[in-house]
Amino acid sequence: MPLRAGEVGMYNCGPTVYDRQHIGNLYSYVVADVVRRTFEYFGYRVKQVMNITDVGHIVDDADEGEDKMALGARRAGKDPLQIADEYTRLFMEDRRKLNVQDPGVVAKATDHIAEMIALIQRLIEKGNAYVAPDGVYFDVTTFPGYGTRLNAESPEQRVAGARVEVNPHKRHPSDFALWRAAKPGDLQQWDSPWGRGNPGWHIECSAMSMKYLGETFDIHTGGEDHLFPHHECEIAQSEAATGKPFVRYWLHVRFLRVDNERMAKSKGGFFTLDDISGWGYDPLAFRLLALGAGYRNGLDFTTKGMDAAQSRLERWRRTIRTAHAATKGRVAEPEGEHAITREFRDALLDDFNTPKALAAAEKALNLAATVDTDEQEHALWMLFDMDEVLALSLKESATTNDELSADERALFDRREAARKAGDYAKSDELRKELLERFGIQVKDTKDGTRWERVGRKGA
User: What is the DSSP string of 170-233?
Assistant: First the structure.
């Protein structure tokens, strides 16, 4: 049961906006969206808060190195807030392409410096933090069980064998920065009671989540890489400051893997949503792939998997479109709770088991493919109801025209002929004309040419 009757407070660890978000990052927001949609599906109001980290995230989790925003700014030759605005916009656009709902609150770290300073001051006054020559640190020895609330391993076990820089200003090697004193050349710095500087990454999420959701709230999500140290530090500083439980339920999304390795910017190469769209895949095929994984299992990203997801999505759309035409647009809720609907809802209640939920949707699709119009009407209602959580735009697909007009087909065929003849300049010219005249986006893939209606360019 939620903390407040009928309402769920939910905080999502947002991106550090120094670069494009890759599909591994986006996967965690698809999962968070499913969680929100599930609660809303069952009648709860969800207050969803997501932060934007536009300062304070150091390259190394041990408080060493450069702020990622400074790194991105130097690479782009721009001000940190310029790149923050640019990459935040692109991130929100990617989310919407995946039908991920906008949070009720999007909290930028740079807009909440005052709240962070107030929380740090509170920790100093309670004896959980101390001022050092290079900033303010949280004293982990004042919080019993630090680093083990979410982890089986202790912090000492996690760093065993690793090279740890000795900071003579720390009382304990695991103490973490709440505030960093400004260094020469720092692009982002603010006044504080401890001099000019900038906040630590961990204090940001505590200050912002508690401002909007209260000192205790229901759900906190993030990737498994946030588990330690980020979320353990959040727990320590929040509970030390308030004396109350911080979060009631933590949800950590396992990594997206490519060739059995975690996708990460630090590995020097990653795929964006633009990449997979450029390969001919619908962004919602990626969402469908993610739904088929289950957040506790992680997601294996392969072209074979994306091919299957694209084909599955197209099959669903065709089946729904045909059934909708057969019923002349009539959709009817079954009397009582249908067994398929119950199976779908039970799957969601089973730790957001989206693979089982998709299996229930497949059963509804089988009904939609029958010749019994009553069954088809019921199946369509169930599918549209399920899509409140799945968010694959199934209702929109029911009325989408899947055929090219004579003029569209003629231009499409001319473009295909030019491409096959090796006249790529002409092929590109006709591709542009198809988009500008008819709103048809053409994509060449290894399985042939695909097209979709996306609206006229500039319309």
Answer: -SSTT-EEEEEE--TT-SS-B--TT-SEEE-HHHHHHHHHHHHH-SSEEEEEEEGGGIIIIIHH
Neighbours of 413 (CB within 10 A): 12
Query: Is the domain of 138 the same as that of 221?
Result: yes
pLDDT band, residue 160 (cuts 50/70/90): very low
- As a whole number of angstroms, the distance between CA 252 and CA 150 comes to 10
- Residue ending a domain, among 210, 237, 253, is 253
Number of domains in the chain: 3
Helix (H) or strand (E) holding 135: strand 135-138
Identify whether residues 374 and 299 lie together within a single domain: yes
The answer to the question of residue 139 being in a domain is yes
- Answer whether residue 124 is part of any domain: yes
Q: Give me the mean pLDDT over the 72-91 stretch.
A: 92
CA atoms of 406 and 419, how far apart (whole Å): 20
Query: 49 with 82, same domain?
Result: yes
Asked if residue 67 lies in contact with residue 57, where contact means CB atoms within 8 angstroms, the answer is yes
Q: What is the CATH number for 333?
A: 1.10.730.10
- On the question of pLDDT at 165 being above 50, the answer is yes
Please report, in angstroms and rounded to a whole number, the separation of the first and last CA atoms in the chain.
46
Whole-angstrom Cα distance, residue 426 to residue 372?
48
- The parent domain of residue 419 ranges over 406-453
Q: Where are the beta strands (DSSP E) in 195-310?
A: 197-199, 217-223, 247-253, 256-258, 261-262, 299-300
Q: What does the pLDDT average to over 154-176?
A: 73
- With H, G, I as helix, E, B as strand and everything else as coil, classify residue 291: helix
Within a domain: 109: yes
**Strand ranges (DSSP E) for 30-90?**
45-52
Do 365 and 312 share a structural domain?
yes
User: Is 390 part of any domain?
Assistant: yes
Is residue 232 domain-shared with residue 348, that is, in the same domain? Answer: no
- Per-residue pLDDT of 193-227, as tens digits, reads 999 999 999 999 999 999 999 999 999 999 999 99
Assess whether 113 and 142 both reside in one domain.
yes
- Determine the average pLDDT of the residues in 150-157: 70
Q: How far apart are CA 387 and CA 175, in angstroms?
A: 46
Quick one: three-class SS letters along 338-359? CHHHHHHHHHHHCCCCHHHHHH
